[in-house]
């Protein structure tokens, strides 16, 4: 086995800065992300950090590394870091740095490449890459994002632009007649509702989630329905007063007789009749969007589309210009539109369907033009971007899309994380400017292509492969990937929404197979259970181990959600022969969930760095515990100096511990078998001791409640997921239920998320003085109400010494200046004659 040289990512990663930039990038992401929808794409800043961290030596200058990530570019230009390009001459210099670790410039493999973020950044770093995925839609995205821009450059952009314009104009000539104007104004959208017959009174009832059309601070408009003499009349009104909707959670309510319409009735009626009501249309006026009821012209235009479809349907099916496949089965129920519509083409109304068929035919016609002028690969490249019209447009123009009432825009189908059936749904006029129209879609495709060309042309080479990770064979130095995890997304089933149309558009150039599901690594399709996922994940780890060279490195992104999740992933890698050399928590999502805010969340992406284990050996945790402790203390000093706090510190400490632990193929305990979660609890104990030691003069006598409260407050864990709180409590041999009973915390739920909230002296009811923190908060409350004299009286009644009280109060001085407990602690210490930190100091070790 060749000599192992440590890389930068095994010793250093600026987690906080990467996390902050990643959150901002999510809000203003790279244009390539907008070219075609794909799930759970990693921000480019995160991918770049992993790539460069794997390529560069451990002694590379940290400040220069941050510059390469683009942080200086952000501060100078105000633009996001992903816009920063490392100059070509600097790339050549960096290749010399790569060789210090890897001898030759290595190739990077991403076996689960998805939307292509990791290969994209690998190419920008000047190295060759292999991008593999099991899904054909992901494969097309990788071709369009990575391969074609790098190979063809600016000429490709011109030819794709030419093709998009041609298809748009030719489709517009044929279809524009079916989108009549309203008094000379463009209609930008139509709002429809399913219509189902009431089983009791027979009235054809519109299924509407809400009658609001726009509802924000500046504007309020709604539809007011009225049933008279078996007829439904609709009125447009302003202000408040909208009625309740007629359908919620799959159950309808009749407008006429107020009877319940069961879901089975709704399902069978929609399956049989596909009956809809055009509630209103959205018109583009001088002062913004206006709302108008449907006119006779609107109804006639729509019926004409149905006539054309009915007349030519057999021919459309015969020539395969429309998908006739059934929506796939899904044990999770995330494709619940299947229950009502069955086939993919039925997700479109008659006008949408005719539009899509017309687009297909125009792309085919343009394909004939391309075949006369270009070689086959270049023809396929251009046609791929044209097929993306469907990948974008069906997301915004289907019976699964909705009207966003506050923002007055189309809400995409994929925003629901599934393929839903919307009771009231929106249809786009494709030929005007607006969200989800062909004009905006063509712009998104071209902007993404332009970005890829500017960033990748003449950079590192890429090879894309389509297949299961289990089929990989070629040896590789570096693996970096973000594999699917459990039931997050059922890629195979969801992607058919796009693929059902894209493969039709491309069949003049290439015969694309079906979306394969037998080795799809996600839970959700029939037969793909949790046990199936576990098996496939372990097989994937084993295959990655097999293709990784002996001195290579594997970097895996993992969406951490629980201790059990850690246990499974780390065990899978360990049993495959990997040892973990580092873990880094990187936050990539902005969240408003109070149970997962700030540093309390360890549910973000975890970067796991691994190498091949050098030997097979067993060990007992009792025998190697001192080695683990000493190694961890050294790394904790490094992490602390780099600014890691809270759960980030714990996760990084976990990685440092695993660096020792996973050198063993099996870790035992004299009391039984050791599990990863047991090690994590041990790590949390050490981390808590380390943090408290920095702020307390003597922690040896602290009770569990005080230790828990101080550690959590110092770590800014005022609100945290239940798993995080439970882990901290268990590491201190304490029980969360006891803290809840004592009123130190309160439990909270938001959706499926369960968490705890710490209660400070301002919002806690203090009836007993069972712990040191109880007494300190009694003193604080007394001081706030009656001043220092009253606080002194309280001090005289409690069983703890003044020095013990002072120790806790001094620890509170490390909290942010605006924190109420810091402020009152400082006032009490001043009156007690206690010195306190100068401005800018935050810990006792800095006094």
TrEMBL record:
GO MF, one annotated term: nucleic acid binding
DUF1156 domain mapped to chain residues: 13-64
Enzyme Commission number(s) of this protein: 2.1.1.72
Catalysed conversion reaction: a 2'-deoxyadenosine in DNA + S-adenosyl-L-methionine = an N(6)-methyl-2'-deoxyadenosine in DNA + S-adenosyl-L-homocysteine + H(+)
Any Pfam family hit: MethyltransfD12
Enzyme category, top tier: transferase
GO biological process, one term: methylation
Protein name as catalogued: site-specific DNA-methyltransferase (adenine-specific)
Organism: Methanosarcina mazei SarPi
